[in-house]
Design goal:
Chain lengths: 448, 448
């Protein structure tokens, strides 16, 4: 019998496996896909060009990610962040430098007030128990939309705040509880951190792509890894826990679950999971984000003084653009985020139409050179059966106050990891790693 | 190859099967449980006493239910509705007659204003497209809690309205979108109808229990019914659709799905269901209701002038009580509804503690005679793996405006029934029947 079985080889499962390996414990790491990395994935276009189609950024206070990159010898580099930004508002393109868009001053002040207000509220959250903050019932009884609509006094203010927050949460603002939004902000330090490149969550990328790190982490325990092993049933009793799939069964003392919430509901548990966990699982839904990427011979926009960054209102197919070129700018990559309702519309189109709409959009922003990329790629994470969405699970209204931390609560021999169980950097790769390490340490305690 | 396969033998599946049978079509009706009836279930205590542990009431405008009862020769009778009601507020019991509780006049007027306001808003909903009503974005961006909290000016008003609405929706008020609540109200005619016995959704019960009707409906096509047949995979192509379970496979031209939303996510569909449907399925969660029942030799409370009806605030374990005795009052049944957070707390207790808490509560209301029932029974529908909750699926904020009727939309050879796909009497048995009949007729069209 094994000491432990880890289900899911995303960053959370890999981080857990690493700890068990170091402790000399016997374990298996089961993964449904044909690769490790989960919601991160680096796609190689040829031997020298790659795209990070999943999670790709790290930033200050994501200490575990920097430590792992250092340990495995993966270098990081600065996200390109110079030159003019673009604001596409009411079908009109405006360019501006720095953090302050070219808009009427009332809307500008309004934006500042709304974001500061959110920030101030978030500061009151204790991430270990968001339901205990002052006025938690009211905050969890309303949506982020409700809050934003009430505090944005001009329509332009609302449009800009909305596109920004949609990019942070990967959902429509009416799909998430205000309390969850505050928790999420606090969990990732503060709102400014989540929105920023410089000193923010988008500051750095890994050379060779995020999956390079995942692969290197998996390297020492390749023989413990089983790809193409989707789990269908988990049975626990006083002696052990059994993990079943279509053609396999493994037994262990402990299981660490490190998969996204909607996938948990697809596994049969015997005995059934506690009511409070299954009910919460019915409520947590995944965000929906598509990444739309354009590869060019060079990051040509830099030469004409553009940063590659865009914020666009709901008339446009994509909320935001970033420069996602590799470290030295050997070739150019523009990355557009297509989120929530915009993703549901865009990805309902056939590929040829998506491509032509995407090229028309990017050409509007960056001129005719943008019309002919070497390569076009788009990917909607909600289409992936083994993720069902990105970036993370979202708590609707009522979930935190009625269910608390039920998602993370241990159920006998099953330990629950995954970024959605992390108090710190919930929804980010850093949160995944922290949760995996946390549960691995807990398992080691029980094995002593 | 069969003409059709119906998945789920609740009222929706039975109603569909009935139509296909009448049209002389070949079909199978697959059911995971060992019985028909779905979220209705009549439990026989002995040869003469029964309890309706699931859905049990019908009322005016539920025309299909009355027509079916008539057709199958099942009689109905009036829910007992005379005498004093009880209001348990701030640990104090007050009795009153009729519809108006004994409370301070400000709270009474406030209750009236809040319910009328809800009612007025609901009147604007077009049930075929709730997302198109005036201010739909605002209404779907807030919760029923938010609305109720804002319009209830006294704490007693809030307590009473809350207990009433929790009983209607089977959830905490912060778990449901205001727009969904309005749709639900309109779908069941109006709020007064949903709250009332007389001329309302609780007016009538079936003699012999609700399952009597389900059984009689199933009788003519017993040979088409397969119990213990949970479906795990559905594969469709240009020629046909295959329905797989652990030890079976059936092929047909069409499938009618008639199961609760969370169970749909547990089936593997090939090709995958459209994104908009799978995403909505991640968001729709089931209400949670437990029925707590006390069987006595006689409905003794009637003799002392009580109706058996109670409304109790959040300090008490149950929201509401009703007299659920059989037609002639041959024996007495008190029924308590235990809903949402109260259910999550109550059903986390061991059975002996539940029973003693329940008896203490009912004794407080109806005196020492209530302390010694012949029989005690409680049942939490969220514990049933083949329902996962009751009464119905709930739309959180953002679901109606972002996803519309995606739940009911046909996907090639799969037709979607179940009460959650019904515009009329959504969440009620009537809605289940109507949806099953609607999809059966649609299937017949495609078979012609």
């Amino acid at each position: 019998m094994l000491d432990a079985i880890i289900i899911g080889a995303g960053f959370s499962g890999l981080a857990a496996a690493r700890i068990l390996r170091q402790a000399g414990r016997s374990f298996l790491l089961l993964e449904a896909r044909d690769r490790v990395g989960g919601r991160t994935h680096t796609r190689w276009l040829n031997t020298s060009q790659y795209l990070d189609v999943g999670g790709m950024w790290i930033g200050p206070t994501q200490d575990r990610m920097y430590a792992l990159a250092r340990e495995y010898g993966v270098e990081w580099y600065e996200t390109y962040n110079q030159g003019q930004n673009i604001l596409d508002l009411n079908q009109r393109i405006r360019t501006y430098k720095g953090l302050i868009p070219r808009m009427d001053v009332v809307s500008l002040i309004n934006i500042d007030v709304v974001l500061k207000k959110l920030e101030r509220l978030a500061r009151n959250v204790d991430v270990r128990q968001p339901w205990a903050m002052p006025k938690a019932a009211q905050l969890d009884g309303q949506t982020l939309y409700d809050f934003t609509r009430r505090h944005c006094k001009t329509s332009d203010c609302f449009k800009v705040v909305r596109a920004g927050l949609e990019t942070v949460f990967a959902c429509e603002l009416n799909e998430v509880s205000l309390l969850h939004a505050l928790f999420y902000i606090r969990s990732g330090t503060n709102l400014n951190t989540l929105l920023s490149i410089q000193n923010g969550a988008q500051q750095h990328r890994l050379k060779g792509g995020m999956q390079t790190l995942a692969e290197k982490m998996a390297e020492p325990f390749r023989e413990n890894l089983r790809l193409h092993h989707p789990v269908t049933r988990v049975v626990q009793n006083n002696q052990q826990i059994e993990v079943h799939g279509e053609n396999f069964r493994f037994d262990a003392q402990r299981v660490i679950m490190a998969i996204p919430p909607p996938l948990i509901s697809q596994i049969r548990f015997e005995p059934q999971l506690p009511l409070i966990k299954t009910q919460l699982l019915q409520k947590v839904s995944m965000g929906i984000v598509g990444k739309v990427m354009f590869v060019y011979e060079k990051p040509f926009w830099r030469e004409t003084g553009f940063s590659g960054q865009v914020v666009a209102d709901e008339h446009q197919p994509f909320q935001t653009f970033f420069d996602a070129s590799p470290a030295g700018g050997e070739y150019g990559v523009l990355l557009a985020f297509c989120i929530a309702n915009r993703a549901r519309s865009f990805f309902a189109l056939p590929e040829a139409e998506r491509k032509s709409l995407a090229l028309a959009t990017t050409t509007r922003y960056f001129g005719p050179q943008a019309a002919s990329p070497q390569h076009y790629a788009d990917h909607c994470w909600a289409d992936e059966p083994w993720s069902q969405g990105c970036y993370a699970g979202l708590y609707p209204t009522g979930a935190w106050t009625n269910f608390g931390h039920a998602l993370a609560a241990r159920t006998n021999r099953i330990h629950w990891a995954g970024t959605e169980t992390s108090d710190i950097w919930y929804g980010y790769i850093e949160g995944a790693v922290r949760s995996g390490e946390r549960e691995a340490h807990e398992v080691l305690q029980t094995l002593l």
